[in-house]
């Protein structure tokens, strides 16, 4: 029976129930008068209830895997991979369950590949824009500052004062352009490593009024360029969210090794998510975590919001 299609299983179950009901009616010492008596009606109703209950139990057993499949389809999230429906010994739906699990596997694999290419293209575009900001706009503003300085030497004091204000505006714009270029392309990460890049990141946010306390373990293992970039970007996004949305005054940024994993934790003292849905920033962090097989959790912490990225170490 397990090898039968679902349609024939339902037909066979219903036919079996009808046969049992007919045999019971034929063998039971009961009769039905032309005018149904009250006692006979009670027997018929009880028999009908028994048939319906037996039929529902048998059908529920056969169709239960389909209910589990429907519930999984309603709740599946490709950003939280790994959920699968246990394969049933029910031959009628075993093929369907196996096909659905295989489809999830393909979707997760294809999504991971496409996201990897998209993020790689995004990083390349960040590098290009940062280089143009630094080389083209940065050099242009520097030339403007030098020109303004030369012009101010032969001008009256009143005009020099106005020109000095223009110089300060140009200098502030140059600093902002360089800051944007640094955020787009973490040169410190490439030149000095992850811990130095996180230290520079903490210093940058502290300079804008939010206290950042950094805790790191000495002697962290080598993680590789891809993992270090993901850790840096997650820390950067978490600090940005704390500064912009959580109204946080202080943040603790830690990178430590625990067993066979390195854990990045960013916890602020802000207002928390307050039931808000995850935005593009958090979804972007999840996509990056999936690329390196890491696990990301975002939720309430001891004070405000806690972001935790667990990066498993490669086994030698």
Task: Describe the protein's architecture and organization.
With 316 residues, the protein is of the alpha+beta class. Helices cover 64% and strands 12% of the residues. It is built from 8 helices and 5 strands. It has a 5-stranded mixed β-sheet with strand order 1-2-3-5-4, covered by helices on one side.
Order of helices and strands: HHHHHHEHEEHEE
Low-confidence stretches: none
- Nearest-integer average pLDDT: 77
Give me the side-by-side strand order of the main sheet. 1-2-3-5-4
Count up the helices: 8
Strand content: 5-15%
The count of strands amounts to 5
Q: Cα-atom Rg, whole angstroms?
A: 34 Å
How would you classify the helix and strand content by structural class? Answer: alpha+beta
What is the distance, rounded to the nearest whole angstrom, between the alpha carbons of the first and last residues? 49 Å
Helix content: 55-70%
Q: Oligomerization state of this entry?
A: single chain
Largest sheet report: 5 strands, mixed
Assign an overall shape.
Answer: elongated
Give the topology.
Blueprint: H1 6-27, H2 38-75, H3 91-152, H4 157-184, H5 187-192, H6 194-206, E1 211-216, H7 225-244, E2 250-258, E3 261-268, H8 280-291, E4 295-300, E5 305-312
Parallel strand pairs: 1-2
Antiparallel strand pairs: 2-3, 3-5, 4-5
